[in-house]
Amino acid sequence: MNLITLTVVSILFGAGTLLLLQRSLAKIIIGLGLISHGANLFIMLSSTGSGGPPVLAEGVDASSVADPLPQAMVLTAIVITFGVTAFLLALALRSYLLTGSDEVEDDLEDRRIARHEVEHR
Amino acid sequence: MSWLLPALVAAPLLGAALTLVLGRRLVPQRIVTLSIVGGTAAGAIALLLHVDDAGPVTAQMGGWPAPFGITLIADRFSAIVLSVSTLMLAAVLVYAMAQLGRDAIDWWFHTKYLTLTAGVTLSLLTGDLFNLFVGFEVMLVSSYVLLTVRSTQREIRSTMSYVVINLLASALFLVTIAFTYGISGTMNLADLSIRLAEVDPAASQTLSLLMLVVFGIKAALFPLFMWLPDSYPTAPTPVTAIFAGLLTKVGVFVIIRTQTLLFPADEPSGLLLFIAGATMTVGVLGAIAQNDVKRILSFHIVSQIGYMIMGLGLLSIAGLAAAVLYITHHIIVKTGLFLVAGVVEAEYGTGGLDRTGGLLHRRPVVAALFLPLALSLAGIPPFSGFVAKLALVQEGLALGQGAIVAVSLAVSVLTLFSMTKIWGATFWGEEKESSGRAGRAELATTGVVLALSLAVAATAGPLGELSLRAATDLMDPSVYVSAVLGGN
């Protein structure tokens, strides 16, 4: 069970990193989403006794109780990432409306240096 | 006093809600925001006086005893940083109000500013790793919105990289949290300090490095600083000023807190000193290559972070005390310098060095504000930067770390050089056409910040002793641990 989850986490991180390195803003945002999912799943891996209810009642063996804390943390993290991703999408839309393209623009400094090199060749 | 801790976080949040309800009514909005931010600053100073006198104050949220619930804690270190930060928040707020209507600062500014305040106080006061994540996010989300107020193409481009890198850092932070929880089963920093001492050194070293990377991105350490000079200069002046003064310093605060509390060591760390030296050098070289006031100053933020990490890297009481003093000095001076840059922009409509000049003759008062702050940044006596740098250099030499001392002194000379570049182009030279005039309120607020920076220099004796006491607590994690967990 843990090995499967761990494989999923590593695939999510790998795919997310690959997308993050693209020039299209939409792909970057999807990549960040994948990485966040990987991180959230990873937090779930740190909990114990998965599958059982997170209730320590009388007569229940403490080792079979699911740890509620990672679940609470993941829930918080999901909400935060969701909000920030929504903001990022709005930024990307605004950027698209302003420039007409979905690509990350060149860095101003980079462009200046490139021009400098061409002029002095 | 323990009621004050949650109040310092809750009051700005409640205020933010209240300003939303008030809508576009400007006068009540100003009254609410100013009184809450001012009240937070007053509370922070009262807290500092109390903590210095009676030891750390803690508050257990929801009444849950220490390792189970969320703990808020103020020790000397956090109280010092909190006091300076909230004072700057109040000063910049006045400056921003004077600018209201210009530079796209409008009625909704107050709400964002209050949530930013809450994020900063929560990040500084929390004693829980996951709560720290929440505090960071509250602070960052407010900063995203404040950076994009004008929504011009330039701003969107620079904020995009800022948001992406911070979102990635947050994901890494979550991974670190998962590792930490998996290894130790706790999120409480004091409890972690005890449990991490018992785990495999390899595991705790991995955690230490992971935390250094995560918080290093927030603090703009070498080689993770690229986002900063790109995103800060495009925002309106009050926003840039408060970000420059506070946000990276909260990162530095957390680095110092986690490295001293969770991974105690008592001899100089080669890795940290190398990072410190590289951060200083790369930052100052970047600054020299720029020709816009705000961009020069932004690169100097990176460079100055190196000095604070140098104090941490020495890992001795005097070294940490110097770092604390440096943070205090830096938050004030950096904020002040950006406020002056804002005045220059108000005069010329730009901060580009080639389009400014002759300000000394037309507005000598601006020059009088800039000069002491710039000299202080470079570490020229008798200004506050000198005191802090002297403490660092002395301790570095005492510990036989000649290399980093040499680097730090060379970087100081280069800092002075790039300050003279601003001075020469903006204040001297032939007069260039000006497009406006900075208001009295802006100049007065900058004057107050300058006065605070001079006060740091004037009270360097008592402040130095206070930093020493704070550093003594930092080097002895049991102070923090027993304050949170009680007894033993």
Task: Explain this structure.
The complex is a heterodimer of chains A (121) and B (488). With 121 residues, chain A is an all-alpha fold. In chain A, α1 (2-20) packs antiparallel against α2 and α2 (25-45) packs antiparallel against α3. Helix content of chain A is 69%, strand content 0%. The model of chain A has no long low-confidence stretch (mean pLDDT 85). Chain A is elongated and about 80 Å long. Chain B is 77% helix and 2% strand. Chain B starts with a helix and ends with a helix. A two-stranded antiparallel sheet of chain B has the order 1-2. The relative contact order of chain B is 0.11. Chain B has 488 residues and is mainly α. The mean pLDDT of chain B is 88. The chains are: A mainly alpha (121), B mainly alpha (488). Chains A and B meet through α2 and α3 of A and α5 and α6 of B.
